[in-house]
Every structure is written in structure tokens, then in C-alpha cells.
Amino acid sequence: MSNNALTDRQIQEAISFHGHSCPGLAYGLRVAEYALREFGHSGDEEIVAITETDMCAVDAIQSLVGCSFGKGNLLYHDTGKVAFTFYRRSDGKSRRVVRKPERTTAAGEENKTLMRKKADQGLTEAEAKRLAILREMRMKEIMTADFEDLFSVKESALALPRHARIVDTLVCERCGEPVMETRTRRSGGAVLCIPCFEAEDRRA
Ligand SMILES: [Zn+2]
Ligand SMILES: [Zn+2]
Asked: Residue 178 C-alpha to ligand 2 middle, in angstroms?
């Protein structure tokens, strides 16, 4: 894994955060490399990221760029795309990075077939070995490709999100569990959490 600005240590950090190394994480590593170069590392909340995927790639952003769900500077807009928007509060700079379609290759098709078989019925030992080799090859390709061949960089379409807000906590009048005010619903004058509200709704 060379030809990019991430150190081996950073790559190892992301792999141990994510739990395994995989092509999805490799895409995320390339985005993290881009974000660190163009926007810098977010010690506190100065960089905000929107992720459009909740799959492997986002873990590279969480582990290396300093944008994470717990800190409130990583937001999830579920479009099912490997796409990330970065904002820098100090100067308003923002960009959206979107994965380009992958070229269809024989190795790619073989990989897909084996992944599907793995999920459906499991693989033989030989097939599992072959799949591991294919995935390793794909990861190397992703890590060494020109960034422009993997991703398009576009103007961001969304406005800068506001700072993580401090919200009140209310207690659900049905289950008694404390819940953020912004996630409560009202039903016949009672303050309910969403699961209780939906359960009431189903009964009605
Ligand atoms: Zn993964
Ligand atoms: Zn409740």
C-alpha cells in the first residue's frame, strides 16, 4: 500500500478500528487521505462531514479524520452512495466526494459471484482462498489508483450544518426512559418517545 499520503500507522489504525481490512475500507482510506490533505484533521468540531453510506468506508473517516458520530460532526444522509461532504467552519470551504462507477472486470465479476455464494451457501476452502486473493488485489488497486479515477470532487449541495446543539432531555410518559426532546412525539397531550409513539399508533 503505497503512493498515498497515509502512513502505515494510520492505515493500521483504521483497520483495527474497523475490525478487518476490505475494499470498502480502502475507498474510505482514500477519502480520508483527501480530507486530511484538503481540510485537515478535526480535533474538535471544526471539520464537519456528511456521510451518505453507513458501510465500511465511513470507519476510515471516523478513525482518521476526527469526524465521528459521538462528537456530532459526522452526519448520516442515507442515499446509499459512497459519498462524503466535508465542511471547514473557519473558511466555509466544502466539497462533496463521490465514488465513480467501477469498471467491469473479470476479477470484479468473479469477486461478486463469490461474495454472493458466500452469503447464500458458503464457500469451499479453495473458493474462500480465491476470494481473499481477489479482495487483496482490489484493495491494492484502490490504494494505488489515482484519486481522480476513483472519485469525483463536486461542489457541495447542502448548507453547512449548525454546531451540535444542546437539547433538553424529557422523560417518556409511557416507558419512563429519558429521551432527547428533538426525538419526542406528542400523543393526546402526553410526551412519548418514538418507539412508544409508534406502538400507540399501531394500536389505534
Ligand atoms: Zn469492511
Ligand atoms: Zn417510551
From this structure: 8
Q: Which residues of the chain form CATH 3.30.1330.130?
A: 8-103+138-154
Range 8-103+138-154: architecture per CATH: 2-Layer Sandwich (3.30)
- Where does CATH 3.30.60 sit in the chain? 169-203
Q: Give CA–CA dist 96/183, Å, rounded.
A: 28
How many angstroms is it from 195 CA to the middle of ligand 1? 30
Q: Fold for domain 169-203?
A: Wheat Germ Agglutinin (Isolectin 2); domain 1 (3.30.60)
Helix, strand, or coil (residue 32): helix
| Closest ligand, as measured to the CA of 192 | 2
β-partners of residue 189 are none
pTM over 0.85: no
Would you write out the chain's pLDDT as a tens digit for each of its 204 residues?
444 589 999 999 999 999 999 999 999 999 999 999 999 999 888 999 999 999 999 999 999 999 999 988 999 999 899 999 999 989 989 999 999 998 888 999 999 999 999 999 999 999 999 999 999 999 999 999 999 999 999 988 777 766 656 778 999 999 999 999 989 999 888 999 999 999 987 776
- Centroid of chain to Cα 165: 22
Question: Alpha-carbon dihedral of residues 146, 148, 150, 151, nearest 10 degrees?
Answer: 150
CA of 132 to the centre of ligand 1 (A): 13
